[in-house]
Write a structure and sequence with these properties.
- The complex is a heterodimer of chains A (218) and B (314).
- Chain A is mainly α.
- Chain A folds into two domains: 9-39, no CATH class; 55-84 and 116-207, Up-down Bundle (Glutathione S-transferase Yfyf (Class Pi), Chain A, domain 2), CATH 1.20.1050.10.
- Chain A contains nine helices and two strands; from the N terminus they run αββαααααααα.
- Chain A has helices at 14-17, 36-45, 56-82, 85-97, 104-122, 130-148, 161-175, 182-188, 191-211, and strands spanning 25-28, 31-34.
- In chain A, strands 1-2 form a two-stranded antiparallel sheet.
- In chain B, strand 1 (2-6), helix 1 and strand 2 (34-38) form a beta-alpha-beta unit.
- The longest helix of chain B has 33 residues, at 254-286.
- The chains are: A mainly alpha (218), B mainly alpha (314).
Chain lengths: 218, 314
Amino acid sequence: MCNLPIKVVCRANAEYMSPSGKVPFIHVGNQVVSELGPIVQFVKAKGHSLSDGLDEVQKAEMKAYMELVNNMLLTAELYLQWCDEATVGEITHARYGSPYPWPLNRILAYQKQWEVKRKMKAIGWGKKTLDQVLEDVDQCCQALSQRLGTQPYFFNKQPTELDALVFGHLYTILTTQLTNDELSEKVKNYSNLLAFCRRIEQHYFEDRAKGSSSIRLS
Amino acid sequence: MFSLLDPPVGAMSWPLCLLLPSLQTYARFTGAPLKVHKISNPWRSPSGTLPALRTSHGEVISVPHKIITHLRKEKFNADYDLSARQGADTLAFVSLLEEKLLPVLIHTFWIDAKNYVEVTRKWYAEAMPFPLNFFLPGRMQRQHMERLQLLCGEHRPEHEEELEKELYQDARECLTLLSQRLGSQKFFFGDAPASLDAFVFSYLALLLQVKLPSGKLQAHLRGLHNLCAYCTHILSLYFPWDGAEVPPPRQTPVSPETEEEPYRRRTQVLSVLAGLAAMVGYALLSGIVSVQRATPARTPGTGALGMAEGDEEE
């Protein structure tokens, strides 16, 4: 959205390379910056920002909605990947352990699962059932849908960090194959969110892909 | 009629459950008839944890957001007049508070050494009955520390100061954002309070009312005048007897005594019994007092007695 040239690289040890232990992170020159917040600040310091046109109240709302997405959608995604036994058995363990040989793939996968479950317990999601998690996702999507309304983007006609974040999560939910499709069904209930994703995909990814082949989204 | 069981109220108890003041405030906003019972032993609550709500049907609910849902079902809904967009904003701002402000509040009250030793632990030790006051505060501190570590991710010890600075910076930014959102309005959504106001008020009032030895965040909050005025306004409207400036210590001499009354007799009796048991046990083990079995009337027995007597004579 900022028109900056990037190259997406997948690495198995990305979590260990990151300074804070969290992905994604960017590597620019000799600097490494991880997580969305610091990356946005870093890019802003270099002179590119999407939210300069917002007033103070709008900036406050944007930050609040970004936290909502992190709180609900991100946690729900983690829950579904690591705490739902069906998904864990069929997809997550295989995917997480794929770069490593046996028995490392099993050990690392179980270790990660244990870590995620501990975190879930700490924030109070440990005792939630899948239905409750899906209900929370529904509530979050409803809030986002109401905020978006009929506008093309969340704030005026220009996209901001919030649009990027929401697109990232919703697109992933809609396009990732899981054992059950309930999560993506919840998102599909909101037609304006679907239109929003489609619009961004067309505008920023398909058009770019014709020009340069750096990002490829299947 | 609802009964809400909660630990001793007043500025003392709020850290016990950071959601509790928001529950009480929400109830006050909606006019729900709520009676607050102060108990300091979590095991005396009907569900085993605090806070707990006992409804008029005798049901017990102890998960905070379920308590609010229940109140709403009983037609005590502070968000009734909000538009859909405002409801969405509420959700977003509550998430913001929980992500940015809550960890710092936990850190301020439980992890910051000065605050913990001088304020938090003292409150709990005074409010809880013997012998809970010895180990329960320490256990709660360990739980909070673990929770904070999990929330903020893995970090190496040398980066701890940096992490702390970052946390506080995030919290200051969060407060500034709230101030900007509130502007010069009386409440977040116009003239009537909503559930978001209950949440925000509970966090802010905690920070403002408590005298902390090292209150970095407090200083920042005091600089945001519209938030301070907002808190004082809600306090004067809905909590008139607590007041903004009335010092809580005036009430403390009264309440701990009445709390301790039922326990004092019990602890006295228990300690006397424990002392007696210890003395008797020691005496038996060291042989000062020995228990002799009554011997049956037989020759070897009397022989033994005779020998004993013989020894004595010698």
